[in-house]
């Protein structure tokens, strides 16, 4: 019997996509909730897990995995029997890894620069080119089928579906029809609904705890 996973989680963070993924994979795990409003993510116990004090993170046996994309790839391969990860011999494996990497290497950096109103590096040296190029590349990919790799739902869609949905809510990406249809499609999945409910409930608990905490 393989070691159970410990999932370090806090509401209203990138950890939500991992919550959906664990649900999709039917992966046994222990949920370790951190109240970031109370600074629990900055305590020594968690800083030993991730020195940046960020979630998501997982522990699996002696392995500690941080970084949202790495966790998705790791879990998808670990629970390959769920059928959500293209095998090494599958022609979709390369495109799958490409889009997983593109999320962290291009999509998020472009979003952060745009949100912070920072001028990106010159196009020839920017890791993502330009914000508009990134959005158009994603739009074109999502125009090819229901999911990122066409008709097949994969771990990549848990990551991207959550990200596209979240950024649409805050007006961080254009309301392209392809984006809105994709987000709505992923949002209908039971795993997304359950993760959203858990996120809302724990977020409310943390708000109450913050309001009742001694001041000063």
From TrEMBL:
InterPro entries: Glutathione-S-Trfase_C-like (IPR010987), Glutathione-S-Trfase_C_sf (IPR036282), Glutathione_S-Trfase (IPR040079), Glutathione_S-Trfase_N (IPR004045), GST_C (IPR004046), Thioredoxin-like_sf (IPR036249). PROSITE patterns: GST_CTER (PS50405), GST_NTER (PS50404). Pfam families: GST_C, GST_N_2. Residues 89-216 form the GST C-terminal domain. Residues 2-83 form the GST N-terminal domain. This is Glutathione S-transferase family protein. It comes from Roseibium litorale.
């Amino acid at each position: 019997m393989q070691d159970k996973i410990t999932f370090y989680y806090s509401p209203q963070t990138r950890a939500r996509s991992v919550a959906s993924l664990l649900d999709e994979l039917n992966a046994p795990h222990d949920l370790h909730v951190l109240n970031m409003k109370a600074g629990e993510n900055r305590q020594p116990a968690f800083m030993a897990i991730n020195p940046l004090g960020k979630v998501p993170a997982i522990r699996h046996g002696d392995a500690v995995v941080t970084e949202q994309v790495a966790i998705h790839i790791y879990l998808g391969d670990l629970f390959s029997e769920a059928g959500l990860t293209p095998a090494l011999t599958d022609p979709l494996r390369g495109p799958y890894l490409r889009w997983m990497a593109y999320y962290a290497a291009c999509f998020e950096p472009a979003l952060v620069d745009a949100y912070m109103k920072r001028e990106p590096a010159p196009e020839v040296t920017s890791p993502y080119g330009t914000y508009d190029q990134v959005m158009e590349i994603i739009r074109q990919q999502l125009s090819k089928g229901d999911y990122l790799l066409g008709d097949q739902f994969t771990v990549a869609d848990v990551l991207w579906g959550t990200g596209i949905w979240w950024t649409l809510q805050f007006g961080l990406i254009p309301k392209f029809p392809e984006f809105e249809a994709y987000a709505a499609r992923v949002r209908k999945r039971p795993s997304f609904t359950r993760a959203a409910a858990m996120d809302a409930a724990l977020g409310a608990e943390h708000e109450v705890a913050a309001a009742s905490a001694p001041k000063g």
